[in-house]
Amino acid sequence: MEFVYNALVVLHFIGLASLLGGFLVQMKSPEKGVNPAMLHGALVQLVTGVLLVGIASAGLVPGEEVDHAKITVKLVIVLIITALAFVGRRRTPPQVALWGAIGALTLVNVIIAVFWN
Question: What is the C-alpha radius of gyration for the chain, rounded to an integer number of angstroms?
Fold first, then answer.
């Protein structure tokens, strides 16, 4: 099960790269908006995050403990990001506010993951 857990961690990082990369690639563009990479990255982050917490909570990976408060905050943030990405994909650019909110919330989630102990 440790292999599955580690594979999900890799997929979780790929989702982060897609979400944050989709945001960063548009920094100089005047037509900022939600691109497919951002939506797909948000969905990958959501699904793999839930699976990672489920596996760790079930005790299937030795040494992995779950901080439920931290996970709850991160889950709420990624749900907001995913909802914003869905809304943004239905609208035409420019969507500077949606684009900025998704990028900012993504960075907040990364900061929480790294610094919340």
Answer: 15
The pTM for the full model equals 0.93
Q: Check whether 63 has a pLDDT greater than 90.
A: no
CA distances from 78 to 13, 21, 38 (A): 14, 16, 12
Q: Can you tell me the distance from the alpha carbon of 4 to that of 57, in angstroms, rounded to the nearest whole number?
A: 14
Burial state string for 17-44 with b = 16 or more CB within 10 A and e = fewer than 16: ebbbebbeebeeeeebbbbebbbbbbbb
19, two tokens: 């979400």
Amino acid identity of residue 77, one-letter, is I
> Helix, strand, or coil here: 95?
coil
